[in-house]
Amino acid sequence: MERNTWQTPWSYREGWIIVVGLTGLGVVWQVFLPALEAQVPRWPGNLILGLIFITLLLALHFFFAKSLLSKWLSSVPAAVTSAAFYCGLAILMGIIPQGQANNSTLISLLGLNRLTTSWIFVLANAYFLSGLGLATLKRLIPFKLKNAGYILNHLGLWIALTAAALGSSDLQRLYMNCYEGQPEWRATNQAGQVVELPIAIELTDFKIDEYPPKLTLIDNTTGRVVAKGKKNQYFSVEDSPIQLLDYKVEVEKRLHSAGLIGERFEPVNEMGSPPAAKVRVTHTQTGETQTGWVSSGSFMHQPYAFKLSDRYSLVMLPPEPQKFQSDIRIMTEEGQQMQTTLEVNQPFKLGGWKLYQLSYDSQKGKWSTLSVIELVRDPWIPVVYLGIFMLLAGSLFLFRDGTNKKKAQ
After folding, report:
1. In contact, 214 and 207? CB cutoff 8 Å
2. Do residues 118 and 111 lie in contact, with contact meaning Cβ atoms separated by under 8 Å?
3. Are 241 and 309 members of one domain?
4. Is the pLDDT of residue 319 over 60?
5. Where are the transmembrane segments (predicted)?
6. Kindly report the CA angle at 248 between 242 and 251, in degrees rounded to 5?
């Protein structure tokens, strides 16, 4: 006998209908109530909201365990459909650039370019975390040791996702432009607003390690790099001799910092002095040999090309950064001073803040007197890490239990 829709117990059919309904409700709120922002309150409002959510789950478990809502949320169909809803939005976040203006009016209207603050995501989050929380409580109370793996796994996931959602409003991501010799205590947030900090940062020195510059051929008519087949040809000056189409290029002299004097380059140790190289170019078909100079140029000097024929010229590309770092001095309101070096992916921790080396004045390159530092503060991250560690521990328990069962069989 075929079961009617909404006939208890509910199954996957009702689960997908609920997902569609929540999506429609989220779209309606997002489009017709734009003033009603889906924003989690800041501390302590987010803590209060979290405690209310936990209280509701406990009430459903202890006092309304036999209700239709409680039975549905803790069921397998609800878990599968809510997880699919949640993961589908996560995939959209990876496809659609977040936090940026979008050319599509529909995407902007639905808030798909800022999903974490959209009503669709809030409803999906609440639906998934409600079911996950009730399913965990069913195994947690009463506690049995054989359920330890399941509890750690599911409770850890619930803690990590809930803490990430509640802590999103307390997350601060600021950007500070630091110039050499000028202490700075003001930063800007992602909305472009100026934020004054209790610390000041002074850039004492900025350093860049660069890769050796590369040589290539360009078409004199189009100015484009000449390709061999479908692949552009770039070769480091350290790979000399190199073959570019029918030209064999040998580097006879290389200068890391040079200045043009007449038609030749000489070593110069001044700001903006670009690298240069003296090259011997031999046409492999005719045997004709030419000697000349190439230079990548800089923000102060024009690049210098070596014209090989009416069609081709040899050029040097600007050196690419290999590693860059900032030597900084940090001053606190209490009068403390400390010095450290910031490198990419090597943050410095200070009073709940993490300082990251973000960028610099790319036009000036190694002569940059500007260092852009990112300051990140996320007070909820320890709770998120706790949930992740519990999730990993639960996975180990489940792996052990599965191994023991296999041995027993």
Report:
1. no
2. yes
3. yes
4. yes
5. 12-32, 44-64, 76-96, 116-137, 149-168, 380-399
6. 60
Segment 5-11 mean pLDDT? 89
Helices (H) and strands (E) in the chain — how many of each? 8, 20
Q: Is residue 50 part of a domain?
A: yes
* 3-state secondary structure at position 383: helix
Query: 153-174, pLDDT tens digit by residue?
Result: 999 999 999 999 999 999 999 9
Length of the chain: 409
Token look-up 């909820």 returns 380
Structure confidence at residue 403 (pLDDT) = 64
Question: Residue 230: inside a domain, yes or no?
Answer: yes
Q: How many structural domains comprise the chain?
A: 3
- The answer on 27 and 90 residing in a single domain is yes
> CA 238 to CA 254: how far, in whole Å?
9
Residue 153 Cα distances to 136, 145, 150, angstroms: 9, 14, 5
Domain that holds residue 204: 173-209+322-377
Q: What are 89-133's pLDDT values in tens digits? A: 999 998 988 877 777 788 888 888 888 889 999 999 999 999 999
Structure tokens at 83: 């997880």
DSSP conformation letters of 131-155: HHHHHHHHHHTTT-GGGHHHHHHHH
Q: Give the long-range contacts of residues 222-231, CB within 8 A, separation 24 or more.
A: 226/312
Which pair of tokens denotes residue 65? 């365990």
Note whether 293 and 337 are same-domain residues.
no
